[in-house]
Amino acid sequence: MNAVHIPLAADQRGFTLIETIVTIIISAVLAVILAQVIANQTGRSYRPIQVINENLALRAVMENIAADCRQGANVQLIQDRLTNEDYWEPAFTGSYSFQTIDMGCVGFNAGTGVEEASACTDSPILKVTIAIQGTSHRLTSLFAP
Questions:
Q1: Which of 10, 54, 61, 69 is least enclosed by beta carbons within 10 angstroms?
Q2: CA Rg, the chain, in Å?
Q3: Beta carbons within 10 angstroms of residue 96's beta carbon
Q4: For residues 87 and 59, what is the distance between their CA atoms, to the nearest angstrom?
């Protein structure tokens, strides 16, 4: 069999192997850069949703405490439940780890309105501050059982 050789005109030249490899390498580098940018943006777009969920979980704990106050629970019972972590019901608060930052009775100076620590027998106002561990989210509420 005789091979037929068709001569190419000067303007019908194709890409060389080097040009093709360089194009593939440049395309791959650009694809990696684009993938990193998209991954960073995806992570940042999730953060506001996470913050909302954390705040809702903190509010759910405070709602549980408020429900006890409305039912007539005394300060000691609420403090015991906070200490035993009875308010961290996973059905309401999700899988977050809570931490009681501050819990105690407070009163307010009649002249200045400044908060003062007091014995729970002197002041029926309970101040509770809770936080989600590993975050800066805190919620403080005052309860008058």
A1: 10
A2: 33
A3: 21
A4: 11
Q: Is 132 exposed, middle or buried (0-12, 13-18, 19+ CB in 10 A)?
A: buried
Alpha helices per DSSP H over the chain: 17-70, 75-83, 90-93
pTM, entire model: 0.63
Q: 3-32 pLDDT, tens per residue?
A: 666 666 656 667 788 989 999 999 999 999
Q: Give the pLDDT confidence of 107-132 residue by residue, as tens digits.
A: 877 788 788 877 777 667 888 888 88
For residue 143, give the 3-state DSSP assignment.
Answer: strand
**Every domain of the chain and the residues it spans:** 17-143
Residues in the chain: 145
